[in-house]
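Researcher: Here's the sequence for the chain we discussed earlier.
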Amino acid sequence: MSGSALELAAAVRRGTRSAVDVLDEHRAAIEATELQIHAFNLVTAAEARAAAEEVDRTVAAGDDPGPLAGVPIALKDNLCTRGIPTTCSSKILDGWLPPYDATVVQRLAAAGAVPIGKTNLDEFAMGSSTENSAFGPTRNPRDLTRVPGGSSGGSAAAVAAGFAPLSLGSDTGGSIRQPAALCGVVGVKPTYGRVSRYGLIAFASSLDQIGPFANTVADAAQLLEVIAGHDPRDSTSIPEGPPAVSEHLLDGVDGLRVGVVTELLGEGIAPDVAARVREAAEALAAAGAKVEEASVPAAIYGLSAYYLIAPAEASSNLARFDGVRYGLRVNAPTTNEMMIATRTAGFGAEVKRRIMLGTYALSAGYYDAYYGQAQRVRTLIARDFAAAYEQFDVLLSPTSPTTAFAFGDKTADPLTMYLNDVCTIPSNLVGDPAMSVPFGTGADGLPVGVQVLAPALAEATMFRTAAVLEGAAP
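Model: Thanks. This is the structure I predict for it:
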């Protein structure tokens, strides 16, 4: 594919390239290899062409279509798109056409971007490998025998395969950063509330956040600036405008205090992944940063707390899929039997597992012992991160414990699958921003992602650090 998203947008705005041309080039890439990769649940050919033609008309009229003029973008299939199927890769939303666009989808249109399709995901964003989709798995473009990560595996694969320079995913426990690491692209989870969740089909409302995938740190910065900012339709949206990350990308890390999180480099982290993180720390030191070991003791409890809080919120959020209001309906003699039949047929095994876990954790006799306790642990993790950020400007860790694993490797035991999120979950529990930057490869030649973590609303510092890592990457 020719050029970064920023280069493509600049060429389209200047009129030296047409948006339709750019779209056709990416459509050719999709037609060539999408059958092997299966990044998309739906390619929106007619809608994309209409959007590209509109961008070209705007340029011809001497007007500016926006900072992402003519740039194809892939959308995770849990973002509402008006009149276009939105499935969450689940049978339970069969036939549903949203009556409105998600806020991020509206903001992309206003910026001149061209949505080209809805990407595959683990059903309702529950998974770390995109093997839990009702429509079959997505394959990793770097090695078709490996998973692309999850739950936003389709969005990561679409960028890695050259189907689109940009995509959007959602991140509840690492669902943007982990697939970004496994596919060798940049993936960003913004501060909670930085990007509107209006029109994102909820998994766990206190953890979910929409964010960008891109091939470069600069492209990701531009996309974040387009989708971020206050939205009165989301009660958790923070009042601030979009972060000014692009203008600080080249500020460097001279004098920046960087902490390498010891608790996220211990047991379970593959030696080749740990080695890349140490090299990344050395690269930052060479660029003038003050690098030291950092301790976030409660981070080790992140996984346990998350797998009580997230299923509890999911069991509440997914109660709306009852066969009455929209989506799948399996008829039965009584209302109760109809709901049971619909949910039995419509939800996959992992979603059922989490609904049951969450309902149990919220039940009368167990609420304090499980959900209440998990929330107290969440507070502890937040305090430990706050203490670390008094000493450090950013923190460093692996994104994923290993490089991309083979299909079926971890499906038999849910707990081994959940361990993929050990490094990413703490940021979701705390609400802080974090991003994955490709940094070399593992022993198997597959991409390794290094995670940059920052305090709430410190995206500018996080991106500066990521830009230096990108420039130093082997």
